[in-house]
Sequence to fold (536 residues):
Amino acid sequence: MKLDNLRTLAAGAQDRAILDLFEHSADRARIFSASTGDLLFDYSKTQLDTTIRDALIQLCDEADLADRREAMFSGTKINETEGRAVLHTALRNLDGGPVEVDGLDVMPDVLDTLQRMRVFAEEVRGGAVIGAGGSFTDVVNIGIGGSDLGPVMATHALSPYHDGPRLHYVSNVDGAHIADTLRQLDPTRTLVIVASKTFTTIETMTNARTARAWMTEGGGDPATQFAAVSTALDKTQAFGIPENRVFGFADWVGGRYSVWGPVGLPVMIAVGSNAFDAFLRGGQAMDVHFRAADWGENMPVMLALVGIWHRQVLGHASRAVLPYDQRLLRLAAYFQQLEMESNGKSVAMDGAALAVPSGPVVWGEPGTNGQHAFYQLIHQGTDVIPCEFMVAAEGHEPELSHHHRLLLANCLAQSEALMRGRSLPEARQRMAAKGLEGAELERQARHRVFSGNRPSTTLIYPKLTPFVLGQIIALYEHRVFVEGVLLGINSFDQWGVELGKELATSLGPIVEGEESASEKDGSTAALVAYVVRHRD
Ligand code: F6P
Fold:
């Protein structure tokens, strides 16, 4: 079964009423869902039927998914364009056996670094390690992309567990970011973590140097108040960060998959090593499920197949991630990098042009906020946008449980509304009840029609604990992996970010006014001329 054949098999499927599918099968919600631990993934509010689902599942065997999956877990160099293994799963392999790369077991190093992180994090939290002015009140993490988005997302998500120093994240090279952050801090009681896999990223290194100057000028001591997280130990040393403050990891951890290891250090300092361990255990539990469950019961696989169905079969260009969980406010940004940097490719692993669309645009905001912003288009726009809802059965504020009930009701209402819609006769009836008639009734009614039949999925979990967060993040990582395997692409490189970086380097001296823009295109040259005219 190729994707093309699947399109033929699925012809007309998107027009059939999802509600009718429920009428034909009393058990649909159970049949079209997957669970693991306490997580439930409901994909019954889609147009999938068992025939199409079977055909989608067949894709997994045809793509040798089982072999590819084991190749990833066992350290084969599946990132072929960079010649690297893909082993972020080893970072959460707390009880697992050896994992070999090039014949060497990587687990002793992984566990040793984890233990050093635990000790350091607890020393910072407990005041055993201090700055020039006393115990650390604040931690600033300087990093970008995967060295920022994961820890930022997790710090927000786990705020009920945050009992360590205050955390701040600086990513943008825009001086506004670091200026606004440092302005409020005491340079003698601030710990700076420079997080960069390569330790060459221009934004991070520029911000790190600015932070170091700020600390020195303010009476702090960079020699004892800086730590680094990187794979490039020669570069951290050249920057002047002492060896005992460097937490290394290997090149087989992709930036966007790195929150599980040293890149998660700020999170560990915030919530403590026990809570961080629980996060790792959640990820590990999802790994165990992913490796063992049959395709049809396998949550990451089914999440991926629903993704393939909506994007590659039905052609929907984007999908919305809609957590009804305020603390997941950076989850969509995190998934944007995870999914779009991984599967936004138009060349297959063998170099041939991809015959099907690449991964979709991923975007979103927490509910209920999004309802008052962009849901209008999701309900009545001309494009169908599959929605991925997420919600906890209970919140962290028992005294505010009435808020949580409202949150839940809104989340469930949205997926129901997308599916059910409102027909023209129903809209007419409502207008008639308001006393309208004739042409005006007809005109007003048409604006109040909801086509309905818009697909969505819901991931529901008991409560947003560190363990559950680990499950959710690993679930989406494996979803991206499965989609990548089915598309035949390399989900673990990111060559698409290189050209812009190269051109930014060549534009540096031009923007500085040291070189002429005459070799640039007319638009770029005119924009540079504007900048030169308008700056002091
Ligand atoms: O430019 C993209 C990228 O390479 C991401 O893949 C990565 O997460 C980010 O930059 C930051 O890279 P580093 O951790 O090496 O500073």
The chain has a mean pLDDT of 96. The pocket of 6-O-phosphono-beta-D-fructofuranose is lined by residues 144-147, 196-198, 201, 204, 255-256, 341, 494, 497 (CB under 6 Å). The two ends are 63 Å apart (CA to CA).
